[in-house]
Amino acid sequence: MSTPIQPVIKCESVYKIFGENAEKVLKKTDGEVDTESLLEAGCVIGVNNASFDVHKGEMLVIMGLSGSGKSTLLRCISRLIETTAGNIFIDGEDLLGMNEKELINVRRNKMGMVFQSFALLPHKTVLENIALPLQVKGISTKDSMARAMDMVNLVELTGYENAFPRQLSGGQQQRVGIARSLAVEPEMWFLDEPFSALDPLIRKEMQDEFLRLQSVLHKTILFVTHDFDEALRLADRIAIMKDGVIEQIDTPANIVLNPATEYIAKFTRSVRRERVLSCQTIMEEYDVNTDLSDITVSKNAIIDTVAERVLSEQKPVAVLNEQDEIVGTLNSKIIIQVMFGETNNLPINNNAESQA
Ligand SMILES: Nc1ncnc2c1ncn2[C@@H]1O[C@H](COP(=O)(O)OP(=O)(O)OP(=O)(O)O)[C@@H](O)[C@H]1O
């Protein structure tokens, strides 16, 4: 029997309730949090019974409207605030049981953080800002500056290393924030609305840049956003929060195809499915006797990028995996159904995305 892979982050029934009597009130309710009685006791719910795992190299996007508890959950996991109840494990270690020294160690060596506000020091240059966390770790000025320069190149800010934050655009400042958080080579990367202060075009550019970096770095990521489109673009899985509760946690495709609640369905209704679903989610089983077209598509390709090609073919198109083996087929009827039809008529491979 193979041993199960240990998650990098594990949350078990995490609660964060603000207010003086939080712990007492929570104990009384036996975990079944009732908003009204909490409010009566002068408490506010931040996070209500959150349980999930995040695996190595995975990007979990925490999405929800303002006040839904996203930042509070992220702060619990980085222990910037103390949880009221529950367990959090980082690489199998009990985060909530760590003393101050252990905590500083974990934060400095394992966690990188990026905030919406950029949080750069105005009197330090780009290079000095990026080198700072390395110097805090005790790395020499020479080595930290050399490493900072590598980071400048990584986020494509070469030539701006001696500029001051005020001389940079918002997007460039956030690149510095990203470079600084990556300088210490964190295993986990926590980003709280990193692109929210940027205008839409720059924001899209930064999302692309972020995906490029992740394709190289394979960090374990928690990314907070209130923007559902951003979540769909970036996430391996999305956790959608409402009033402190994770209403659904799943792949973008499964959320779009099978919203768990009416609240989530409201987000998914206007989503163009062909921009979210990949070929493997909707492909049909391959029958060796099928007369296939000469063109092929990759199982991970988004429908939108292959629709025209598949629609122009009379015969079914083979869907290939990374080894160029046929794993299914697509035909124009399915593509038309994705684009214009009802979701419940699709041959959906619900687990295809998570197995990828
Ligand atoms: N320090 C605090 N004291 C009391 N209540 C708080 C505190 N911090 C957050 N809250 C409350 O907890 C709930 C969740 O807040 P949180 O900031 O986590 O939401 P969010 O989803 O990140 O929102 P936003 O997108 O606006 O940042 C809200 O009702 C908020 O008012």
Would you mind describing this structure in some detail?
38% of the residues lie in helices and 21% in strands. It is an alpha/beta fold. The chain has 2 domains: 57-78 and 105-268, Rossmann fold; 274-355, CBS domain Like (Alpha-Beta Complex), CATH 3.90.1280. The strands form 3 sheets. A 6-stranded mixed β-sheet has the order 6-7-8-3-9-10, sandwiched between helices. Strands 2-1-4-5 form a 4-stranded antiparallel β-sheet. Helix 5 (126-136) packs across helix 6 (141-154). The longest helix is centred in the middle third of the chain and has 18 residues, at 200-217. The protein is globular and about 65 Å long. The relative contact order is 0.11. The model is unreliable at 352-356 (pLDDT under 50). The structure holds adenosine-5'-triphosphate. Adenosine-5'-triphosphate binds at residues 18, 44, 46, 64, 66-72, 226. Adenosine-5'-triphosphate (ATP) binds at residues 18, 44, 46, 64, 66-72, 226.
Oligomer: single chain
CATH architecture field of the largest domain: 3-Layer(aba) Sandwich
What number of domains? 2
Which regions contain 5 or more consecutive residues with pLDDT less than 50?
352-356
Instruction: Indicate the overall shape.
Output: globular
Radius of gyration: 23 Å
CATH H level of the largest domain: which superfamily?
A: P-loop containing nucleotide triphosphate hydrolases
| Number of distinct helices | 15
Main-sheet strand order equals: 6-7-8-3-9-10
Gap between N and C termini, in Å? Answer: 22 Å
The ordered H/E elements are EHHEEHEEHEHHHEHEHEEHHHEHEEHH
Q: Can you tell me the CATH topology of the largest domain? A: Rossmann fold
What profile does the largest beta sheet have? Answer: 6 strands, mixed
Structural classification? alpha/beta
In the CATH hierarchy, what is the class of the largest domain? Alpha Beta
Helix percent reads 25-40%
- Could you tell me the mean pLDDT? 89
Q: Strand percentage, roughly?
A: 15-25%
